[in-house]
């Protein structure tokens, strides 16, 4: 700062110029969440949203029904087999929709910069419509897994369509993308990138991956910046 410059104590630093809407895609463990935090680290206030989580609890894992109509037990709630490696030690990949986004540790006050707020909610549309500090959503994968119905025979929300798939209300992904486009606040959105070798449509995991691809595509259209995170390095796809 040049000599003679007048400074006011307590004034927060000016927020940097960043794209209004950014979508970060990446596989679990790629560093996509850390990249999202870095992009907003200089803002004095940020609201971080963790869909699919309750206070202090891991996100629920929702699986579609088996062919016989029974609801499978998520692997995430089963005790590990003797000698089995945990997800943190690089064990074999999980199965089911949660394979795209393994549970993260419960957020704490120390897990984000000072001045940030972390909340666990699936109600993204009202938050996107509100004015306020930048919004970091980690992740759209968790939101999708937490908001679809567990059984196409018993939709859990008004407007949910029965039949194959996840019972999302018609146009639900488009509604979220529209809310992203209209949001008055800066956005950084995290989502998993389904692997190229995902099962074919009709397989349970394949249906989830297809729905996630549709959601990612709809949201990416509304974002000025889209990046793919590989081994902690951002690869620019747009912007």
Automatic annotation (TrEMBL):
Gene Ontology annotations of biological process type: cobalamin biosynthetic process
Superkingdom of the organism of origin: Bacteria
Keyword list, A-Z: ATP-binding, Cobalamin biosynthesis, GTP-binding, Kinase, Nucleotide-binding, Transferase
Residue numbers spanned by region Disordered: 1-36, 53-118, 148-169
GO molecular function terms attached to this record: adenosylcobinamide kinase activity; ATP binding; cobinamide phosphate guanylyltransferase activity; GTP binding
Enzyme Commission numbers on file: 2.7.1.156, 2.7.7.62
SUPFAM superfamilies reported for this sequence: P-loop containing nucleoside triphosphate hydrolases
Matches recorded under InterPro entries: CobU/CobP, P-loop_NTPase
Any Pfam family matching the protein: CobU
Gene3D superfamilies for this protein: P-loop containing nucleotide triphosphate hydrolases
Pathways involved: Cofactor biosynthesis; adenosylcobalamin biosynthesis; adenosylcobalamin from cob(II)yrinate a,c-diamide: step 5/7; Cofactor biosynthesis; adenosylcobalamin biosynthesis; adenosylcobalamin from cob(II)yrinate a,c-diamide: step 6/7
Catalytic activity: adenosylcob(III)inamide + GTP = adenosylcob(III)inamide phosphate + GDP + H(+); adenosylcob(III)inamide + ATP = adenosylcob(III)inamide phosphate + ADP + H(+); adenosylcob(III)inamide phosphate + GTP + H(+) = adenosylcob(III)inamide-GDP + diphosphate
UniProt feature, compositional bias: Low complexity: 83-92
Enzyme class of the recorded protein, top EC level: transferase
Keyword Electron transport: no
Family indicated by similarity: Belongs to the CobU/CobP family.
Purpose of the protein: Catalyzes ATP-dependent phosphorylation of adenosylcobinamide and addition of GMP to adenosylcobinamide phosphate.
Protein name as annotated: Adenosylcobinamide kinase
């Amino acid at each position: 700062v040049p000599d003679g410059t007048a400074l006011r104590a307590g004034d927060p630093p000016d927020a940097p110029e960043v794209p209004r809407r950014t979508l970060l895609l990446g596989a679990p463990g790629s560093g996509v969440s850390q990249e999202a935090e870095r992009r907003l680290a200089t803002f004095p206030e940020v609201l971080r949203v963790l869909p699919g989580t309750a206070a202090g609890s891991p996100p629920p894992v929702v699986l579609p029904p088996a062919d016989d109509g029974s609801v499978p037990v998520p692997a995430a709630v089963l005790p590990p087999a003797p000698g089995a490696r945990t997800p943190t030690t690089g064990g074999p990949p999980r199965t089911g929709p949660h394979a795209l986004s393994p549970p993260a540790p419960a957020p704490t006050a120390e897990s984000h910069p000072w001045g940030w707020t972390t909340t666990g909610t699936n109600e993204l549309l009202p938050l996107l419509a509100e004015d306020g500090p930048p919004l970091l959503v980690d992740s759209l994968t968790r939101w999708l897994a937490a908001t679809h119905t567990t059984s196409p025979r018993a939709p859990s929300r008004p407007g949910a369509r029965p039949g194959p798939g996840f019972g999302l209300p018609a146009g639900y992904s488009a509604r979220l993308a529209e809310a992203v486009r209209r949001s008055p606040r800066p956005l950084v959105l995290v989502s998993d990138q389904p692997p190229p070798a995902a099962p074919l449509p009709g397989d349970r995991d394949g249906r989830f991956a297809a729905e996630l691809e549709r959601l990612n595509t709809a949201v990416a259209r509304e974002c000025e910046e889209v990046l793919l995170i590989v081994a902690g390095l951002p690869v620019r796809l747009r912007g």
